[in-house]
């Protein structure tokens, strides 16, 4: 057996890098390697030129780039769901990375040995303990890599999941399989001619050599087979490198960059520079070059895995929207290099208006592609072109005219508070917290009950709060997600001015859509505030003992996580704390199949609240059925849009289920008294 560290008269544990390969072949191989890398670079450059035709992108800071690279690229933090596929992807990725690093180390060893004039068998560092560990690690990495490839090939034969099944992708996987298998065969043939081979150093190669020995392969045949397979393995590996920019493998390069450049925070839209709009006369995305460079990059990052499509509520409901197909259609349009109109030619208006902007697609994408962001930018162009009609267009017109989508006068904003003591900012200038009631809480009969419950709980806890009353206007959240950026900025500017007038610092709201807008949209225009959802505040008041439950009356309760609270803001536990307290801890909060940040959409976001869908064609119907299946008598939610959509869904299903906001549930348990008596216009 060879020693790890040689003494005088002994042979050092190592191997010749280009063993059995003539010198002339080595020069040819390096020439082909340079050609492969040049082909790779040319392909990447061609893609980069396409990306650079887009609008400028804000580059994150150095520390942000490094953090995102470590977290999202190396640690694959966004790779969630589909357990088998995710495991296979990790095996393929990490196996490939280790094999690639090992190949680079071999190249460095050979180049250094040549520069230092070392003789074959006298390596610079590829020897002893390093060599032993190197061989074991690479042998194991190869097994991991091939297992991942095999799983992906198997899934393309038997799985019914929604990923693309392109012949080219199968050929790529077969190429990877061939590279891995020939690599082991080359190793086995090398060891076959080495009588001092160590089974513990190259276990797979050693087993392969034993197999070849059992077949009676002569040494001369082994040398020739080794030579031919070495070249076959090398050409396939170099061909793989050269092919990356010209196949779906490009997603590995584009995806890595997209994970570093794309905004990780959900619910954030890029603002529009109105001065630039006046100069250019364009708003939104009409052609590919109107997208940002990062968005064009993200089109090449998409590998059509279908995770976005699986989680899309519009696609589930049979609407003409597949986030996967949308991105792939845009990517194909970019590949042609033509500057054509995207609307009607590449994507239909009906497809764009189907989106609820729930961000399930963006959250599901392991490569950080945001179909929801692409859709919103495309919607902006439709709004400018006057494409939106009917009830949703009317809601925008009413918001423009009256400051709310109901079109009711500001003088009626306080009718919801009839019979309650609700101080305004003028009446209580030293308020501790501003309660943002929102348009639904002010004008919608059902949502007014939520606002009344919140006020009673705030009074019970001794919170010094105030409301804007007649001075409150819509946040513009729905207008912005529908694509009316001009209306949103007008509303945001007015509200921010009002906040400044009254020195507002802390805001509480029961609407997750208002919450998202105040947290994520308003800071883009100088509106920096501490904004909390009413579930966060009420849970805090319970924990501090400022609120206490006097009686629990719920037999069973299921909690529905609103998209813009759970997925976008990450607020999942406070509502459950409130419900557990409200039912006295005697019964569990029943969870539906999809919950937490993996919740299912009610169908009311992205302006869909204002679309006149037939009851059986509504996007949230599957969610309604899922909640009914829990068997709970009460469905609790924490969003006025969800309350409306789920209540309508339950009525359509004729299900004997109560739909309540968590504030109403807590109010009934804390203040057991009637909470009605308002008369308000629809």
TL;DR?
The protein has 682 residues and is mainly α. Helices cover 54% and strands 4% of the residues.
Written account of the structure:
It is a single chain. This protein is mostly helical and 682 residues long. The chain folds into three domains: 23-258, Transmembrane di-heme cytochromes, Chain C (Fumarate Reductase Cytochrome B subunit, Up-down Bundle); 276-387, Fumarate Reductase Iron-sulfur Protein, Chain B, domain 2; 392-670, no CATH class. It contains 28 helices and eight strands. It has a four-stranded parallel beta sheet. Strands 6-5-7-8 form a four-stranded parallel beta sheet. The protein is elongated and about 100 Å long. Keywords: 4Fe-4S, Cell membrane, Iron, Iron-sulfur, Membrane, Metal-binding, Oxidoreductase, Transmembrane, Transmembrane helix. It is found in: Cell membrane.
